[in-house]
Specification:
The protein contains four helices and 14 strands. The relative contact order is 0.09. The chain is of the alpha+beta class. The strands form two sheets. A twelve-stranded antiparallel β-barrel has the order 1-2-3-4-5-8-9-10-11-12-13-14. The chain has a two-stranded antiparallel sheet with strand order 6-7. The chain folds into two domains: about 90 residues, no CATH class; about 280 residues, Beta Barrel (Porin), CATH 2.40.160.
């Protein structure tokens, strides 16, 4: 537009601008007409600002000025549309993050990228982990410090199937832990169960505002193997003894990644003992002669996963429930140390307190505690 205006002015020598500025007729063909026009507009703007009626724009100058303003407005509009388009394109391109690692592992890096690509294509997330860990100790009968041989094994199988959308999520977890060890002090049992848990947990969330969700969850857990008291055929726990089922409704707050704080003012808990003849029901909060206990109360569940690097994963689960008569507090911390793709070590710390459970010989409820350190095989399936 400016070049065309300059050429028009150069062809018409009769067009005269103001003497106080310059004359187009006196300029040569080599003069930059765009620069001259911009200089003219600047001077005319100053004159108009000073409200000097002697310097009114000619029709030709007004036409050029209007054309320049229209051109600038059109360019600004194009820039705005272009910036919006770039932002939309960038928002649609997800970022693939590869976990930090102490040791370079191209196979794991490739698996992370492939998993991220699969997550882009489908809202479903699937993952499974198998772990088999052992602890062994052998001592001859004539060992000068004494002691006895022992062997312990632990197997863990857990999986996750989740449906993830921007406003709605449905998370499903399953876990089975099975562990046993030899006990030299127990003359009736060569192997006793040290860990047995079958658990299914499901939670559905609907977003209310960013980071805050309406939440409904159900949790089912039980035992599948018998656990005997030392030197006795009495069961401490057995298949479906006990069965624990909870259902909760409330708010789930997720302030940062891998942190969930679920507060449920309405929570239902059921405890059922299948075999009440050999299992002491009072050790699970039930009264003598009672097989099933139903409670209505409130609960808080906090879950956090911290992975500073790919080889270290710290998982913490905190749960508390009250029926406004008794309170149950449970904290489980698992720390997995990945040695390579097939070897890992695990440290478990598990304190809990239940005011309704009073063990035989005690006059009040006490804190219970379990600790486990093991090393062995581990593999993750995606």
């Amino acid at each position: 537009m400016l070049c065309a205006a300059g050429q028009l002015a150069a062809q018409n020598d009769s067009i005269l601008l103001y003497p106080d500025t310059f004359k187009v007729a006196e300029q040569k063909a080599t003069v930059d007409m765009d620069a001259m026009l911009l200089d003219l507009v600047a001077k005319q703007s100053v004159e108009l600002h000073e409200d000097d009626s002697a310097y009114a724009l000619t029709p030709e100058e007004q036409y050029w000025l209007d054309s320049l303003q229209r051109e600038n407005a059109r360019l600004d509009s194009i820039r705005v549309v272009n910036e919006q388009f770039v932002q939309q394109v960038q928002a649609r391109i997800p970022t693939i993050e590869v976990e930090k690692s102490w040791v370079k592992d191209e196979v794991e890096d490739r698996n992370d990228v492939l998993q991220a690509i699969r997550n882009m294509r489908s809202p479903w997330r699937r993952e499974a982990t198998l772990m088999a860990q052992i602890t062994q100790n052998y001592v001859t009968p004539n060992w000068y410090q004494g002691g006895s041989s022992s062997f312990a094994a632990l197997g863990i199988a857990k999986g996750q199937v989740s449906y993830i959308r921007e406003r709605f999520t449905w998370e499903n977890y399953g876990e089975w832990r099975m562990g046993g060890s030899t006990i030299s002090a127990d003359s009736l049992h060569k192997v006793n169960t040290t860990d047995d848990l079958f658990r299914i947990y499901s939670k559905a969330n609907l977003r209310i505002v960013p980071k805050v969700f309406t939440s409904i969850s159900v949790d089912f857990e039980t035992r599948l193997l018998p656990t005997y008291k030392s030197n006795s055929m009495d069961l401490k726990s057995g298949p479906f003894a006990p069965v624990r089922f909870t259902a909760a409704f409330g708010i789930d707050y997720k302030p940062v990644k891998n942190l969930s704080i679920a507060v449920s003012p309405i929570s239902y808990k059921m405890i059922h003992i299948m075999d009440t003849t050999r299992v002491t029901v009072t050790e699970y909060g039930l009264e003598k002669g009672q097989q099933t206990q139903n409670n209505i109360g409130s609960s808080i569940r906090v879950e956090y996963l911290w992975k500073p690097v790919r080889e270290v994963a710290l998982e913490a689960k905190f749960y508390t429930y009250t029926n406004y008569k008794n309170v149950e507090i449970d904290l489980e911390v698992n720390c997995d140390f990945i040695i390579n793709r097939f070897m890992s070590a695990r440290l478990t710390l598990h304190p809990r307190y239940d005011s309704s459970v009073i063990m035989k010989g005690d006059d009040r409820a006490k804190i219970q505690f379990r600790e486990l350190l093991s090393i062995g095989f581990a593999h993750k399936f995606r």
